[in-house]
Amino acid sequence: MENNLRDSREWEQFEKFMKRKEGKKADREMRSDEIKRKWGPIQTSLASELSTSITGYNWSTEERLLYGRQQKVDILGVSKSRDCRVGIELERDRATCVRNVIKVWMAMRQIQGAFFLIHIFSPVFANEKLIWREEAEFVGKKASTATKWKANLQAHPA
Questions:
Q1: Is the predicted pLDDT of residue 26 greater than 70, yes or no?
Q2: Looking at the chain, which terminus has fewer C-beta neighbours within 10 angstroms, N or C?
Q3: Cα–Cα distance list, 21 to 6, 27, 32, 131 (Å)
Q4: Does residue 64 sit in helix, strand or coil?
Q5: Do residues 63 and 50 touch, judged by C-beta distance below 8 A?
Q6: Are residues 146 and 108 in contact, defined by beta-carbon separation less than 8 angstroms?
Q7: What is the b/e burial string over 27-53, where b = at least 16 CB atoms within 10 angstroms of the residue's CB?
Q8: Residue ranges of E strands in 3-158
Q9: pTM beyond 0.85
Q10: Of all helices (H) and strands (E), which one includes residue 21?
Q11: Are 111 and 103 in contact (CB under 8 A)?
């Protein structure tokens, strides 16, 4: 039966699928290496700089937004009076970046005080033809009209 499968059209389609999958994996790895090279250890560096520069907040990395939930923000700043939080999400090359906005939006029902989300995108998102960028801009604009959020979409050179 295996020989029949190998001779079939299905086997050819499967082989083509696996080659495309391997190519996409190689592309992701190449993008990831480039981002690491350009950004370096941005998460820890930024949290450290914020701790030094903005001392009215306690800054931490990979912090849970809500107790009992798995979702974390890359960097979280909590004001010392605990009435304001700043969440920073760093998007390297993840296709599902809009989840971060949704995560915060859902958590806002339970968070006391003000919450500011800063979403920083890697140079990968500079490609205007990329659907990820289009989705991120769409969600940012919708969030700003449906809530008190203000979307400030700015492109900065890499």
A1: yes
A2: N
A3: 19, 10, 16, 19
A4: strand
A5: no
A6: no
A7: eeeeeeebbeeebeebbeebbeebeee
A8: 57-64, 72-79, 84-91, 114-121
A9: no
A10: helix 9-39
A11: no
Which pLDDT band holds residue 61 (cuts at 50, 70, 90)? Answer: very high
Which amino acid does the sequence have at 115? F
Q: What is the 3-state secondary structure (H, E, C) of 33-63?
A: HHHHHHHCCHHHHHHHHHHHHCCCEEEEEEE
Q: At how many degrees (to 10) do helices 131-146 and 98-107 cross?
A: 20
Partners of residue 64 on adjacent β-strands: 72
Instruction: Judge whether residue 2 has pLDDT over 60.
Output: no
**How far apart, in whole angstroms, are the C-alpha atoms of residue 56 and residue 150?**
23
- Beta carbons within 10 angstroms of residue 129's beta carbon: 6
Three-class DSSP category at 91:
strand
Q: How far is 127 from 80, CA to CA, in rounded Å? A: 39
R_g of the chain, CA atoms, integer Å: 20
Q: For the chain, how many residues are written?
A: 158
When the pLDDT of each residue in the chain is averaged and rounded to a whole number, the result is: 78
